[in-house]
Structure formats: C-alpha cells, structure tokens
Amino acid sequence: MAKPLAVTDSTFTDEVLNSEQPVLVDFWADWCGPCKMVAPVVEELASDYDGKLKVTKVDVDSSPLTAGTYGIRSIPTLLLFKDGKPVNQVVGAVPKQVLQEKIDQVV
C-alpha cells in the first residue's frame, strides 16, 4: 500500500517540481486539528492513485520556505502539481470526494 512521502524544503524540488507524475502536496502541522482529520483521507488517496499520482506531505513548521513560496496561510492546504506547477488547490478539511474530483482533473 502506497503511503504519502514526507517532503522538506531541501527535497521539494526533486520530489514535487521535477516529478514526472502529478503530485498532491498536503501542507500540514502536528498541532493542527483539521490536518489530523484529513490525514487518513490523504493516505487513502496515496493508495487509490498509486502509480498515477505521487502523494506527499510538507510539515509547515519544519519546511517554512516551501510553505512561504506557495503562500500557505491556513492549513491543511492541499496543492496539486502537474509539470512542476500548481494547478489545483483545496484549503481546509474537505470530503474525500472533493479531493478526488480535483485529482481526476489532472491524472
């Protein structure tokens, strides 16, 4: 079963921007309640879209440069990247179906 990949400021370019697959990035923090609510959904998506979508997580506390680059002001924020560019964004804890619709537009 595929799991979300932890990405940091130093690995973001290689893992997300240079990825040949579309990438879902979950910007989160350990102290964030809604982030904990969306985490199981993100894990399910990693499994559901294995081979078609790379699913990653960025801890905004330990990777503030990446969060700042993309203007992440509230978490959880999920960004969908394709060809190294953000193409879709979801802010807040949303139902799995909302995320699937966004993902299906790009995979």
Task: Please tell me about this protein's structure.
The protein has 107 residues and is an alpha/beta fold. 35% of the residues lie in helices and 26% in strands. Strands 1-3-2-4-5 form a 5-stranded mixed sheet. Strand 4 (77-82) and strand 5 form a beta hairpin. The radius of gyration is 12 Å and the shape is globular. The model has no long low-confidence stretch (mean pLDDT 96).
Series of H and E elements: EHEHEHEEH
- Helical segment tally? 4
Major sheet summary line: 5 strands, mixed
Give the strand order of the largest sheet, numbering strands 1, 2, ... along the chain: 1-3-2-4-5
Mean pLDDT: 96
How would you summarize this macromolecular structure in one to three sentences?
The chain is α/β, with parallel strands linked by helices and 107 residues long. The chain is built from four helices and five strands, in the order βαβαβαββα. A five-stranded mixed β-sheet has the order 1-3-2-4-5.
What attributes does this structure have?
107 residues, alpha/beta, 5-stranded mixed β-sheet, 4 helices, 5 strands
Fold blueprint:
Elements (H helix, E strand, L loop, with lengths): L4 E3 L4 H6 L5 E6 L4 H16 L5 E6 L4 H6 L7 E6 L2 E7 L4 H9 L3
Parallel strand pairs: 1-3, 2-3
Antiparallel strand pairs: 2-4, 4-5
